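2024-03-11 09:14:02 INFO worker-7 job=invfold-0412 stage=load source=structure_tokens
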């Protein structure tokens, strides 16, 4: 069965728009790939495997288009651990990037220009497609590349809508697209999907269903990390962490009962904003 895709819809600044958001997502994906001479897939350095979309990668390479991985948010990881991870070693070619510390901008610009030159494009304009999961930092990356605030940004996942054309150089246009992911990840009823989307920031902390369950799963996957960050001895027990942190932050209901929902959302907010490192 052919995979269907969903994308996050978000509002953008007034840029030249093709109004593709009114069309089906597979068409948008295919159209961007068709137009592009080079495609950049933006990945989150903390969650490389979770933010790769291999079916779209196959679509790109099957059309003979050049694919370059951009590993963003490297300021949130230990670089030695990143370079030793099996997921990272499978990425070729790649560029390391950080919007926060402004790392890799010149290298990425040079890489784009070099690849475009190798392609020997005869058309007046070469096109570079930017693709990736929501919240991987595509628009912030584009703004650094362009050198001005051209693409709208927001800390909320799902901010860009449709496709935008932005000028990188006289002969190169960048295509900014909405974050896209397989439609099977759209259902919030699937616990694994809900956990993944909360973990990598697709579903914002304030919209997650059953945040306490998500926190419990994250604590199991990253043992000791949350206790270390909040300086609370919980021995891997999420109920203890929520109880103690709720008291510490005065997140209580009437009767001095800890508000576990608000406390769990606070933890997810800190996690999604990168305040809690996956390795302390």
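2024-03-11 09:14:09 INFO worker-7 stage=emit residues=280
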């Amino acid at each position: 069965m052919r995979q269907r895709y969903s994308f996050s819809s978000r509002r953008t600044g007034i840029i030249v728009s093709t109004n593709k958001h009114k069309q089906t997502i597979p068409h948008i994906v295919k159209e961007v790939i068709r137009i592009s001479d080079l495609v950049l897939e933006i990945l989150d350095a903390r969650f490389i495997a979770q933010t790769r979309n291999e079916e779209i990668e196959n679509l790109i390479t099957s059309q003979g288009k050049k694919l370059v991985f951009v590993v963003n948010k490297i300021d949130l990881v230990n670089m030695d651990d990143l370079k030793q991870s099996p997921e990272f070693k499978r990425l070729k070619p790649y560029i390391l990037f950080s919007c926060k510390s402004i790392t890799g901008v010149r290298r990425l610009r040079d890489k784009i220009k070099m690849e475009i030159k190798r392609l020997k494009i005869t058309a007046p304009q070469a096109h570079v497609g930017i693709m990736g999961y929501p919240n991987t930092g595509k628009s912030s990356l584009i703004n650094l590349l362009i050198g001005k605030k051209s693409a709208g940004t927001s800390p909320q996942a799902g901010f860009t809508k449709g496709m935008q054309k932005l000028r990188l150089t006289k002969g190169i246009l960048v295509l900014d697209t909405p974050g896209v992911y397989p439609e099977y990840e759209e259902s919030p009823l699937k616990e694994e999907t809900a956990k993944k989307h909360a973990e990598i920031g697709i579903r914002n902390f304030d919209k997650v269903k059953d945040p306490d369950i998500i926190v419990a799963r994250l604590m199991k996957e990253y043992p000791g990390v949350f206790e270390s960050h909040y300086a609370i001895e919980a021995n891997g027990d999420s109920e203890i962490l929520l109880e103690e942190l709720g008291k510490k932050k005065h997140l209580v209901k009437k009767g001095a009962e800890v508000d576990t929902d608000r406390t769990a959302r606070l933890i997810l907010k800190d996690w999604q904003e990168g305040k809690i490192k996956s390795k302390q």
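2024-03-11 09:14:09 INFO worker-7 stage=report msg="The chain has two domains: 5-183, 187-272."
2024-03-11 09:14:10 INFO worker-7 job finished
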